[in-house]
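This part of the workshop introduces the protein records we will be handling. A record pairs a protein's sequence with a compact description of its fold. As an example, a complete record with its sequence and its structure tokens follows.

_____
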Amino acid sequence: MRQRRLGAQGPGLGALGLGCMGMTTAYDTNERDDEESVRVIHRAVELGVTLVDTAEVYGPYENEELVGQALAEGNLRDRVVLATKTGLMREHGNIRPDGRPERIRDAIDGSLRRLDTDHVDLYYLHRVDPEVPIEESWGSMKEVVEAGKAVRLGISEATLEQIEKAHAIHPVSAVQSEMSLWTRDWIEAGVVNWCAEAAWGKKPFDVYAATETAGIASECDLHRGMHLFEDLVITEVVDEDNRPVPPGVYGEKVLVTVLFSRTLPLIRYEMSDSVRPATSPYCPCGRPFALIDGVQGRVEDVLHFPARSGDRVTVQPALFHRVMDAVPAGGWQLIQEPEGLTVLLSGVQKGYVDDVLADSLRRELAAQGVIVPSVEVRRVPAIPRTGAGKAPLIKASVT
């Protein structure tokens, strides 16, 4: 089971959680089978599902009792991250929000009794009550944590403004909202981006991205590689026959399925990037997202040179990017031609000496065992584009 982290510094938990509402509520309750539901909870935990989610309004109350029974029978309480919710009330067959501070303080005691535990790991405000300022409701949620009855707090179906107000009072460790291929409002409202930034602790930087897919990964704080945006894209590193490559091995292609687009059916993009999945599934920085620890660039950007040994040397585009990143220019293009390398530069900062770039390229190529070619640097008004409007950074005019 892939792992996630609850909040920026919270415990690890399985990427898939078990929502228990349907075991007692909302769907066909004529088919309710508590014994089967208990077995489902036990089997889920056995398979690595550690987040178990319920709420007082489910039933009401019956769902928490069922979850408490299942965890007690299996002696599983210490193996799960237990979540429940308050803030919704059933009244005369209807459901209404109730975020009054006194109601929240009373509700947690009832939940703990039904769940047969002395605390919950995650306590949600199920809905924001429009009649109660979020600051008052969340202040009471904070009191629940301070009393030792909950470890972390979450919020459900809240706006970005409400989440930010709550987070300023006490950290929001989880946001639970309906999101699917048909329900994308939370992306457009900025809630998903807020969650991503909260999980990273800051805005992602040094992002690995593509025009078709947007962001794919972002550099780890400890510079151990790049964490994949696994909640936004499905990334597969494969060989030329589309077979997954093992950790520590560079692939020939990357297959990226974008989950945040409204396009149906989902599109899986094929990119000719050579990247390497990290050998360790865990990163010392604590973030649970899978790592790629090497990005060599597009396969078609790989250049080949005669070697001093008499063979040929393959030079990955990452080498050229590393050199060019130090050049104060608005644009660049490196072209391999029969007579040598030509580098086009546009928008160069005043005072920059082109020979510095030429010398850097020669040194890097010599270190690779290459018979060093001539290097010519030219200033141009703009980098030429292809008929499709793209300006490739690396081109080969030799075969």
Remarks:
- The domain at 3-200 is CATH 3.20.20.100 (TIM Barrel).
- The chain has a mean pLDDT of 90.
- The two ends are 46 Å apart (CA to CA).
